[in-house]
Amino acid sequence: MRAGFPDFRLGNVLATSFTGTLTERRGEAVERIPTPQRLVDWLTVNGLAVESCTTAQLELAWELRESIHAAATAAAIQDALPASAVQVINDCSIEGRAAAILTPEGNRRWRLSSASCVEDALGVIAADAISIIAGERDGTLALCASPTCRAAFFDTSQSRTRRWCDMNTCGNRQKKARFNANKRKNPRSAK
Ligand SMILES: [Zn+2]
């Protein structure tokens, strides 16, 4: 990890890991891919390594990210999908020319058309977003219960009752807040 930059929140769903590069959207937002190099780092961690990224490509990535966030949020609350967000997601999906490659070990890898083609990587992310918003995967979109977050996440729990985008951050913070509120209400119980 590079010093001086907020670290990444890594999930196992590509599209919502990507929207998770901006956290605390309803509070003090934290931008986790503030520079082209940080987008390169994020893509590398997520199996979509590129050698370089321009400012324009970073701006396109942000636009795709916010479009996925808007569409996934609408899907989570069963609202109509915003047309402009759908357009951006589709454009990115169409532009991308990554190929799925099967390795001899039986794993999937992505091969981009060139080492600097951030658009190919964004196409893979857009296609992933389409598959979850379209309901093609086992799971359901939900919104994080934290009032300063409200991130859309993909709930794959058996009971579909997951409340937080991330147990280690939002979930933990909520638990601590509840614990402190109880302590204030019953100051003697701590003794
Ligand atoms: Zn959250």
Indicate the proportion of strand residues: 5-15%
Cα distance spanning the termini: 42 Å
DSSP strand tally: 6
Helix run count: 6
Question: Which class of secondary structure composition applies to the elements?
Answer: mainly alpha
Folded structure, characterized:
With 191 residues, this protein is mainly alpha-helical. It has helices spanning 14-19, 36-45, 55-76, 83-95, 118-133, 167-185; strands spanning 22-23, 30-31, 99-102, 108-111, 140-143, 152-155. Bound molecules: zinc ion. Zinc ion is lined by residues 144, 146, 149, 151, 164-166, 170.
Summary?
With 191 residues, this protein is mainly alpha-helical. It has helices at residues 14-19, 36-45, 55-76, 83-95, 118-133, 167-185; strands spanning 22-23, 30-31, 99-102, 108-111, 140-143, 152-155.
Kindly list the characteristics that best describe this protein.
191 residues, mainly alpha, two-stranded antiparallel ribbon, 6 strands, binds zinc ion
Element layout with pairings:
Layout: H1 14-19, E1 22-23, E2 30-31, H2 36-45, H3 55-76, H4 83-95, E3 99-102, E4 108-111, H5 118-133, E5 140-143, E6 152-155, H6 167-185
Antiparallel strand pairs: 1-2, 3-4, 5-6
Bound molecules: zinc ion.
The site of zinc ion (ZN) has 8 residues, from loops.
